Amino acid sequence: MRAVDVFDRIPRFLRSFYFLTGAGFLLWMFVFDANDFVKQYDMYDKWHELQGQKEYYLQEIEKVKKDRAELLSSPELLEKFAREKYIMKRPGEDVFVLVPKEAE
């Protein structure tokens, strides 16, 4: 069997310049390119993850804005927050902080 006979057995469209160029392009995009499809999929997955985190942080920002508005509107709440969060005290007061003992 000659090489020409083997070459003739391949369908004509598979020997086409456009088919071979397209197949080479797809091979390049799937395997060799710096932005191949695997990396594109990973970046798309990461983008979805970041979109979920964005929603979470937007909700947290709204909660903090609400808490801030409450604190700034009431001096009693502001004092309570300062005492509990930052262990502040009035002059002449003694503050005792109880720390639970850690289990070994």
TrEMBL record:
This protein's UniProt keywords: Membrane, Transmembrane, Transmembrane helix
Name of the molecule in the record: Septum formation initiator family protein
InterPro entries, A to Z: FtsL/DivIC (IPR007060)
Transmembrane segments: 12-31
Pfam families per UniProt: DivIC (PF04977)
Keyword Membrane: yes
Lineage, uppermost ranks: Bacteria, Pseudomonadati, Bacteroidota, Cytophagia, Cytophagales
